[in-house]
Specification:
The protein has helices at 21-32, 62-72, 100-122, 128-143; strands spanning 2-6, 12-16, 36-42, 45-50, 84-87. By secondary structure, it is α+β, with helices and mostly antiparallel strands. Strands 2-1-5-4-3 form a 5-stranded antiparallel beta sheet. 38% of the residues are buried.
């Protein structure tokens, strides 16, 4: 079953999760590094986030935040933290595979976040809020035709 992991450094990795529900949850917990919560920002996808995902112990995940904002169609007033696993929806008996269109969108936003991080190393953003706005504008532009 296809899924995607987005790391706080804006790298992503395609994953193949087991088909059995308990094994899926065990692997997701292990990949995230602890207890998980599920967040719905798109009706065909789940974002699995660290249970303490709003805590200060985990690094900010700007690519996952931009993806959630883009899918939700609004600027979230909070950030996402730590690694995030994206899957298809939960059917009750298993988690479904992430479809091709959403996988492509997530990877495009991750690449956009990577490119901006690189650009900001030589041209820092004016402020944290300005950086978020720039990331979000670029993420929305990257997925406009997907």
């Amino acid at each position: 079953m296809r899924a995607l992991r987005i790391n706080p450094d804006a790298t992503s990795t395609r994953l193949h999760l087991p088909t059995e529900q308990a094994a899926q949850h065990d692997l997701i917990r292990r990949l995230i590094g602890g207890s998980t919560d599920r967040a719905v920002y798109h009706r065909q996808a789940l974002l699995h986030v660290h249970h303490n995902g709003t805590g200060t112990q985990l690094p900010v995940n700007p690519a996952a935040w931009a993806l959630a904002c883009t899918w939700r169609g609004l600027d979230l007033p909070y950030l996402l933290y730590g690694p995030v696993i994206i899957t298809g929806p939960d059917t009750g008996s298993t988690i479904e595979e992430l479809n091709d269109r959403l996988l492509t969108q997530a990877e495009k936003i991750t690449r956009t976040a990577q490119e901006l991080r690189l650009e900001w190393s030589t041209r820092p953003s004016a402020s944290e809020p300005a950086a978020r706005l720039e990331l979000l504008a670029n993420a929305r532009r990257a997925t406009h035709h997907t």
